[in-house]
Design goal:
single chain, 282 residues, alpha/beta, Protocatechuate 4,5-dioxygenase, Chain B, nine-stranded mixed beta sheet, three-stranded mixed beta sheet, 10 helices, 38% helix, globular
């Protein structure tokens, strides 16, 4: 397939290395240091952070190490939107995403089916041309290094991270991916700019709800003031979708903060990695 309408990366060379050899080497080094025993079962989703690779790449590597060698037909990436584009859910107008490691084709057929199912619930999905969102793209180079075969992408950015939208996205994905070999990535950082001790407490509350397979709890953590995740809707939608596809277990893999990289604990960002799977004994 010849791809001509490729979304150019707005973050290569800043959020992660722009040179393909340097990028591949950096990611491989992260993966080498991420000691993870993959779960005994079918992996249906992961949670990974989306800061610049310098800050959160090592944590993200724990999630993507679980996917190493797999060959899903399609990967859905769910992220928040950090930009005020119109629409409750956003996706790309392009036929592929470009990274220094090459283009990743968008799965148009499934994307149109998801859009249709969201429309049935009166959820507005808008296609954006040359969007600037980093939270979705930042995961692509990791996928390009760990998956054993080329994959197609189902990109969704949740501008509205309320329960109605997150649950609708989860249900739509569970439906359209039911007969596919697929993995769902929830792209989210955790708390932002609290002192490290407070951040760890807030982040532990969110990760406990993720590990409890509690999408509603993830959404309610911020409302109750006990935790925060900038992609809470993306996490909840991933959990709902993975459950709909048969997942029944979640395991937290790693946690760190930006302070672990910079040495400055006065105002940190939290990063967590987790894997969602269907245990083999069920």
């Amino acid at each position: 397939m010849t791809l001509t309408d490729i979304r150019p990366s707005p973050i290569a060379g800043t959020w992660y290395p722009g040179d393909p050899e340097v990028l591949a080497g950096t990611i491989d080094a992260f993966l080498e240091r991420a000691a993870v025993e993959p779960p005994d079962g079918k992996i249906l989703g992961v949670l990974a952070p989306h800061a610049g690779h310098r800050y959160s790449g090592q944590v993200a590597a724990y999630a993507f190490r679980c996917l190493q060698g797999l060959a899903p037909q399609v990967v859905a990436i769910l992220s928040p939107s950090h930009y005020p584009y119109p629409g409750q859910v956003l996706t790309t107008m392009h036929e592929a995403y470009g990274t220094p490691l090459g283009p990743v084709a968008v799965q148009r057929e499934l994307l149109e089916r998801v859009e249709g199912k969201l429309a049935e619930r009166n959820i507005e999905c808008a296609r954006i041309y040359r969007d600037q969102e980093h939270a979705l793209e930042i995961e692509l180079p990791f996928l390009q290094r760990v998956l054993s075969e080329p994959f197609t992408l189902l990109p969704l950015m949740l501008r509205d991270q309320g329960r109605d939208v997150a649950e609708a996205v989860g249900a739509a994905l569970a439906d359209v991916l039911a007969d596919r070999n697929a993995v769902i990535i929830a792209s989210s950082d955790l708390s932002h700019y609290y002192p490290a001790a407070i951040a760890r407490r807030l982040d532990a509350a969110v990760l406990a709800r993720v590990e409890a397979f509690d999408p509603v709890g993830v959404l309610e953590a911020e409302e109750k003031g006990i935790g925060f995740a900038c992609g809470r809707g993306a996490i909840a939608a991933m959990l709902w979708a993975a459950r709909g596809l048969g997942a029944n277990e979640v395991r937290t893999l790693h946690y760190a903060t930006s302070g672990d990289v910079t040495g400055d604990d006065s105002a940190v960002v939290g990063y967590g990695a987790a894997v969602v799977y269907q245990a083999s004994d069920t």
